[in-house]
From TrEMBL:
<protein>
    <submittedName>
        <fullName>Phosphatase</fullName>
    </submittedName>
</protein>
<dbReference type="InterPro" id="IPR031423">
    <property type="entry name" value="Phosphatase_SCO2771"/>
</dbReference>
<dbReference type="Pfam" id="PF15698">
    <property type="entry name" value="Phosphatase"/>
</dbReference>
Length: 265
C-alpha cells in the first residue's frame, strides 16, 4: 500500500462528487445519535474524547461543541435534530485538504522533519503512506521512531514511514494519544530533534498539537476534539471525513491533496 496514488488527480468538483458517492462526506454512516453522544461526553470532561488535547473547562456546553462541528465539519446545525442521518460537508472536506496542502508544500520547500502516524490503519493507512512517500521524494526527512516502544497494550512500530500500533498480529484502531506521547517522550530522552510537522489523525495528531508541534490531521464527525483544537489554534488543519470507508475510496482524495501540495509525480 505504499507509494503514490495510482489514480488520476480529479478536479475539485469531481472530488466532491466522489466524496459524496463513497460517503466519505455527504450523508455519512455515523448516525446523529452517536455524534451527539460524543459531543456530550467531551463537554462532560471525558478525556477519552479529548484526543490528547487539554480542553480545560472551555467546552463544557454541548451546544457550543455542536456549533463548531457544524461550522468546521458540516454536521446538521439544528440542536433539535437528535436522531437519524448526519452529514459532513464535502466542500469543507476539500477546503481543509487545500489548507493541508499549503502546510505540506511548506514542509517540502523547507525539507522539514515530518512524523506521520495513524490510529485508523484500516481506512487511512494508504493516505499516510502516499503522503510519506511524496514528502520523502521531495527531500523531507521522514522521522524514524525509537525502537521498542509500547502503548495501548501493543507495540508502536513504523511501516513505510507511518507509525501505528500492532497488537498481536493486528494493526490497532486507536484514538489514544499515548502512542504519540511514547514516541515524543522517547525522542526527548534520546536527545533527538522533534519533528517540525506531524501528519496524523485523532489522538496522534491531538497529542502532537498539544505539545506545540505543528500538526495537521483527519477526524470523523463523531470526534470533535481536533476541530475544537483547530478552532483554538492547537492544530493547523483538521480534515473532516468518514475515516473508515473502503481504503481505495481515499485514493482520489489523496491524489488531489498531493497535487495541490505540488507533490504529485
Amino acid at each position: 500500500m505504499g507509494g503514490m496514488p495510482t489514480v488520476r488527480t480529479p478536479s475539485r468538483q469531481a472530488l466532491i462528487d466522489h466524496l459524496v458517492r463513497t460517503r466519505i462526506a455527504g450523508d455519512v454512516a455515523t448516525p446523529r445519535e452517536n455524534n451527539l453522544e460524543h459531543y456530550r461526553e467531551l463537554a462532560a470532561g471525558n478525556r477519552y474524547y479529548w484526543l490528547g488535547l487539554e480542553l480545560g473547562d472551555r467546552w463544557t456546553d454541548e451546544d457550543a461543541v455542536l456549533k463548531v462541528m457544524a461550522e468546521r465539519c458540516g454536521v446538521v446545525a439544528d440542536p433539535a435534530h437528535r436522531t437519524g442521518q448526519d452529514t459532513i460537508d464535502p466542500e469543507l472536506t476539500v477546503e481543509a485538504l487545500e489548507r493541508m496542502a499549503v502546510v505540506l508544500r511548506k514542509a517540502a520547500a523547507g525539507k522539514q522533519r515530518v512524523l506521520l502516524a495513524t490510529g485508523h490503519p484500516g481506512g487511512l493507512l494508504g493516505v499516510h503512506l502516499a503522503t510519506a512517500a511524496a514528502l520523502r521524494a521531495a527531500g523531507c526527512e521522514i522521522v524514524g521512531i525509537p525502537q521498542g516502544l509500547r502503548a495501548d497494550d501493543g507495540r508502536v512500530l513504523q511501516m513505510g514511514g507511518v507509525a501505528m500500533v500492532l497488537r498481536g498480529a493486528a494493526l490497532v484502531h486507536t484514538h489514544s494519544p499515548d502512542p504519540m506521547a511514547a514516541i515524543l517522550d522517547a525522542m526527548e530522552r534520546e536527545g533527538r530533534p522533534l519533528p517540525h510537522l506531524v501528519v496524523a489523525d485523532h489522538g496522534w495528531a491531538g497529542c502532537a498539537g498539544q505539545r506545540g508541534i505543528e500538526a495537521v490531521g483527519y477526524a470523523d464527525c463523531n470526534d470533535p476534539a481536533l476541530f475544537l483544537g483547530e478552532a483554538e489554534g492547537s492544530l493547523r488543519v483538521t480534515v473532516p471525513l468518514d475515516d473508515h470507508v473502503e481504503p481505495g475510496h481515499y485514493e482520489p482524495m489523496t491524489a488531489y491533496l498531493l497535487s495541490a501540495a505540488g507533490l504529485a509525480e
